[in-house]
Amino acid sequence: MTQVATYTHRFEPAASAAAGDTLLLLHGTGGNENDLLPVGRAIAPGAALLAPRGRVLENGMPRFFRRLAEGVFDMEDLVARTHELADFVAESAKRYGFDAKRVFAVGFSNGANIAASMMLLRPETLAGAVLLRPMVPFEPKQPPDLKGRRALVAAGKADPIVKPENSERLAAILEEAGADVTLHWSPGGHTLDRADLSAAAAWWREG
Ligand code: MLT
Fold first, then answer.
1. Quick check: is 184 catalytic?
2. pLDDT digit string, tens, across residues 10-20
3. Which of 95, 37, 31 is nearest to 62 (CA)?
4. pTM here?
5. Statement: residue 1 has pLDDT above 80
6. Is the CB of residue 125 below 6 angstroms from any atom belonging to ligand 1?
7. What is the helix, strand, coil percentage profile of the chain, to 5?
8. Is the CB of 71 under 6 A from ligand 1?
């Protein structure tokens, strides 16, 4: 049996057993497992929270996979790390006793990119995802089956890292795979604003 990678992480159980959903919180480059806890609590009050810290270091900054330059990904590492993280989620469901079929990613930037990669490579891991400033992680050779899964793509019109066409392409890839996709535009850049969080909370309530 292969060993599941260990992540430094935080886990907060659901407020009640009836709550049922778990948010997988995935920080951006240079972040850590604490960054998105308040965001997760604001989006889905009462849900369980699982927040790992990325295992790759870029000049001391934690990330979820290696990159060769900004927006240029080390594909071999991305694929390997995507599987590693998906295995950690499955293992954590057993360890903490949450429902593995009701895990939703909330990822920002680098964290959103590995969440998108997980939807494409390990679609069974996530019931849905809030992708905050994501980009297309790669063009899938074969579209996964994402029927019944939901995604929010929260993009910035003036994002200097992710061009609007790239956000639109990611939404299209997920939609073509059968996901129910909402594309939310903020007038701002790569930084999140209040409207992103309100959009995410509203998307969650609609689900
Ligand atoms: C990435 O490397 O995932 C993207 O360039 C976003 C970032 O982390 O800046």
1. no
2. 999 998 876 79
3. 31
4. 0.97
5. no
6. no
7. 35, 25, 40
8. yes
